[in-house]
Amino acid sequence: QVQLVESGGGLVQAGGSLRLSCAASRSILSFNAMGWYRQAPGKQRELVADIISSGNTNYADSVKGRFTLSRDSAKNTVSLQMNSLKPEDTAVYYCNAIKVLEGSYWGQGTQVTVSS
């Protein structure tokens, strides 16, 4: 059993910042990749950013330069620092973890709302 718990969502004005955190119930180093996805009303869930076990990161073009993904293996957490937020960033954000040949795991989601 793997549990992922997101926190840090909320309401922020355009141009503001939020920091999301995902706490895993086991060592994050056991996963091949972890990342953040988001889903806005009426839209498909999309990848925001991910990080592989080596530490290499990947970002969606829409957030590149504004969002930063980091990990803290001692705390079994990955975080998403979101700066210069735009109304288009409004969505439910989900933490994801993948272990090949084992499964893909999801958190419950946390709401991010950016007002114009």
Quick recap:
With 116 residues, the protein is mostly beta strands. The chain has strands at 4-7, 10-13, 18-24, 33-39, 46-52, 57-59, 67-72, 77-82, 91-99, 103-106, 110-115.
Radius of gyration: 13 Å
Structural class: mainly beta
What's the mean pLDDT score?
Answer: 96
Largest sheet: 7 strands, mixed
The 3D shape can be described as globular
Helix percentage range: under 10%
SSE series: EEEEEEEEEEE
Identify low-pLDDT runs: none
Strand-residue fraction?
A: over 45%
**Count of alpha and pi helical runs:** 0
Give the number of DSSP strands: 11
Terminal CA distance: 40 Å
Q: What is this structure's SSE topology?
A:
Elements: E1 4-7, E2 10-13, E3 18-24, E4 33-39, E5 46-52, E6 57-59, E7 67-72, E8 77-82, E9 91-99, E10 103-106, E11 110-115
Parallel strand pairs: 2-11
Antiparallel strand pairs: 1-3, 3-8, 4-5, 4-9, 5-6, 7-8, 9-10, 9-11
Please explain how this structure is put together.
The protein is mainly β. Helix content is 0%, strand content 54%. It has strands spanning 4-7, 10-13, 18-24, 33-39, 46-52, 57-59, 67-72, 77-82, 91-99, 103-106, 110-115. Strands 2, 4, 5, 6, 9, 10 and 11 form a 7-stranded mixed sheet that branches.
Distinctive features:
seven-stranded mixed sheet, single chain, 0% helix, mainly beta, four-stranded antiparallel sheet, globular, 54% strand, 116 residues
